[in-house]
Automatic annotation (TrEMBL):
Organism domain of life: Bacteria
Pfam families named among the record's database cross-references: TnpB_IS66
Species this protein is from: Escherichia coli
Name of the featured protein: Transposase
């Protein structure tokens, strides 16, 4: 388990994301689509087209982390693109 600092928001980026994107592509999507700073310390979660993979982009203060989870079976439930962003 990776502990998150208190006050860290977790953003689900609605719709689909090209999973070929890495650090730079996902950080650019945070800036252009969400109008947020990828270095803010919040966690931004992106889902691929077929729903079996997500990527998390998170700044720890001294650099960016890019975490990937791919399901062997099933799909991640995800909001439609009309909502653009959700946070918790």
């Amino acid at each position: 388990m990776i502990p998150l600092p208190s006050g860290t928001k977790i953003w689900l980026v609605a719709g689909i994301t090209d999973m070929r994107n890495g650090f730079n592509g996902l950080a650019a999507k945070v800036q252009t689509t969400l109008k947020d700073d990828p270095m803010s310390g919040h966690v931004f979660i992106f889902r691929g087209r077929n729903g079996s993979q997500v990527k998390l982009l998170w700044s720890t203060g001294d650099g960016l982390c890019l975490l990937t989870k791919r399901l062997e079976r099933g799909r991640f439930a995800w909001p439609s693109a009309r909502y653009e962003q959700l946070t918790s």
